[in-house]
Amino acid sequence: MSGSIIATRREVADLAGVSEATVSRVLNGVGPIKEETRIRVLDAANQLGYVPSNLARSFARRKSGNIGVVLPYIPKARLFSSYYFSEILSGMGNTVREQGYDLLVLFRSGEETPEYESFFRMQKVDALVVLGAKDEPGEREALRKLRESGHPFIVVNQHFDGENFPEVDVDHEEGSRMAVEHLIDQGHRRIAFLNGPLTYSNSLDRFKGYEKALQQRGLERDDRLLFEGNFGRRSGYAIGDEIAKRIEEVDAVFVANDRMAVGLLQRLRELLPDQHRFPAIVGYDDSDSADICVPPLSSVRVPFYEMGELAARLMLTACEGPSNRSEVLKEHPRYLLQAELIVRDSSK
Predict the structure, then answer these.
(1) β pairing state of 298-301 and 340-342
(2) pTM of the model
(3) How far apart are CA 279 and CA 243, in angstroms?
(4) Pick from 19, 16, 8: which is nearest to 327 by CA?
(5) What is the pLDDT of residue 34?
(6) What is the pLDDT of residue 282?
(7) Is the pLDDT of residue 303 over 60?
(8) What's the confidence (pLDDT) of residue 121?
């Protein structure tokens, strides 16, 4: 019976002339890597016949084999049918499965202070991705404990000023600026804004983008045209009544997500049969409903799947060891993706 020698990551690193952390980043597709370095690492791995072993990785971890993802607990809400959550979870799930991990879904209670550190103490997870976080004292404290304990974690689509938590986010300020600038380019001057709750950093960022676009074009903000919903379709539908009452003052509406925009469109169609008085509307997310609603909805496309994919890759690399964790999460604490404006009939 003949045996075979299994190459190690250390041997790949020595042959390529790089660190083990760099080898891990190249093989997991994480972080900025020079093309020359990437090719050198892949060539070394091929020469040595290095194949990452899921079984060996599991023994090396001596932990759960799970990447945890925290979701908000919202009674009666169908989170998994939400475009936002389904896309991010799909990106995460496909990525961790390829590396022999499982995705463990954990729900945050809306009333209790989060105890994220307990997931690690009980060895439920090897790393944690936090979705749907709000900027609240209890949330900040729970994340500080994770950081102080050295556990690998990352926050998705939420920014905490002054904390320097590791984050994967989108430039929502620029995405909103593009949307409002587009409406101004169409000749609209009285632009209402239907935002989400300001406990979410992305709502604050969208508000900044809305303001920036107005200021850059010399337009004043009218606080009477500012509305707040809860990101649900029903809240958009309800605010349709308020906007319809002021329709003579409104040229266009920028809406912070597509679900509220669809509800708003539905209600305005019911209340404003005269299409000549119908305002232009731009949504946000570019969900599946944007292309099929009537009229088709202009929207800011957000790369949710890619956000989930990147968050998972960062956590997989961080699970490889302390040096990888430091390199991936401390040197590059915030990974920012870009949004894209998709123009359809609702704003033409």
Answers:
(1) antiparallel
(2) 0.79
(3) 10
(4) 19
(5) 83
(6) 98
(7) yes
(8) 85
| DSSP structure string for 199-258 | TSHHHHHHHHHHHHHHHHTT----GGGEEE--SSHHHHHHHHHHHHHTGGG-SEEEESSH
Torsion sign across C-alpha atoms 292, 294, 300, 304: negative
Tokens representing 30 are 């994480």
List the one residue out of 287, 285, 290, 281 whose CA is nearest residue 300.
285
Q: Which residues are CB-neighbours of 152 under 8 A, at least 6 positions away?
A: 126, 127, 128, 315, 318, 319, 325, 329
d(CA 272, CA 279): 10
CA angle 160/161/165 to nearest 5° reads: 50
Judge whether 311 and 10 are in contact, CB under 8 Å: no
Look at residue 39 and give its three-state secondary structure: helix
Rounded to 5 degrees, φ, ψ at 142 are: -65, -40
**Mean pLDDT for all residues in the chain:** 87
CA distance 199 to 231: 12
Please name the residue ranges forming H helices in the chain.
9-16, 20-28, 35-48, 54-61, 83-98, 117-121, 137-149, 172-185, 201-216, 233-245, 258-271, 288-292, 304-318, 322-325
Instruction: Return d(Cα 278, Cα 271) in angstroms, integer.
Output: 10
Joined tokens for residue 52 = 């990452």
> Who wins on pLDDT, 151 or 181?
181
Question: Could you tell me the sign of the dihedral formed by the alpha carbons of 12, 61, 67, 320, in that order?
Answer: negative
**Which of 112-121, 196-205, 253-262 has the least mean pLDDT?**
112-121
Averaged pLDDT, 167-193? 97
- Of residues 245 and 327, more confidence is placed in 245
Instruction: Return the pLDDT at 3.
Output: 38
User: Minimal CA–CA distance to 40: which of 17, 70, 60?
Assistant: 17
pLDDT band for 183, please (50, 70, 90 cuts): very high
